[in-house]
């Protein structure tokens, strides 16, 4: 096993599956099954989920809503997704701990570094909703912050694409996939992996980010075991490598 403690970052949109809104029970089951496999392998898991399948603060602000109010609504959306995943994980027999950047009793306790680390050490899957608890910060930034707090080995960014490409592989058949990237290369090439605040936090704290396809069953366990199926972004000095997309 390559990664003993991980922070899994999931987008809210990924929970929609083939739907145009909300939470797909099938995707929820698949994700929980893959997370269970990683836990049974001995991996300590923390999870941060976005809320874009329900509400996105920036979209609300673009339509005239107050940005701060919209961001808090987005944080609440992340908690709905977190509660849904918690319910499915527990249905599959895992122990969980739901924490939040916003204190909301009796749903969950407020996030604290000590509380999260203790729960992970006890074998619980820690799900952290509510973003950072502050407006103007994305769940990308929240996931990086939480990963640093719990001393995760890596952020695993689960997407519907199997890594980072030179262009959108769904639109450009000549796009090539990066196996390895440095933070500076990703910024120079304007590769939209995470926002700049999240990137700066990860770079300053030497925290690698691994981008992979979470929608393919079994991929999470492959990444935990160290198999090369996605793109690693880190402080490496060597020249990045590419491979042609199939």
Structural commentary:
It contains 8 helices and 12 strands. The protein is an alpha/beta fold. It has a single domain (5-244), classed as Acetylglutamate kinase-like (Carbamate kinase, 3-Layer(aba) Sandwich), CATH 3.40.1160. Helix 1 (25-40) packs across helix 3. The two termini are 27 Å apart.
Topology:
Blueprint: E1 5-10, H1 25-40, E2 44-49, H2 57-62, H3 67-91, E3 96-100, E4 109-110, H4 113-121, E5 125-129, H5 139-149, E6 154-159, E7 164-165, E8 176-178, E9 180-182, H6 183-188, H7 196-204, E10 209-213, H8 219-224, E11 231-234, E12 242-244
Parallel strand pairs: 1-2, 1-6, 2-5, 3-4, 3-5, 6-10, 9-11
Antiparallel strand pairs: 7-8, 8-12, 10-11
Note the beta-strand portion.
Answer: 15-25%
User: For the CA atoms, what is the radius of gyration?
Assistant: 17 Å
DSSP helical segment count? 8
Structural category: alpha/beta
Oligomerization status of the protein chains: single chain
What is the CATH architecture assignment?
3-Layer(aba) Sandwich
Mean pLDDT: 92
| Gap from first CA to last CA | 27 Å
- Helix fraction, binned, reads 25-40%
- The third-level CATH topology is Carbamate kinase
Strand order of the largest sheet: 4-3-5-2-1-6-10-11-9
Top CATH class: Alpha Beta
Poorly predicted ranges: none
How many extended strands? 12
Corresponding CATH superfamily = Acetylglutamate kinase-like
Largest sheet: 9 strands, mixed
Any idea what the shape is?
globular
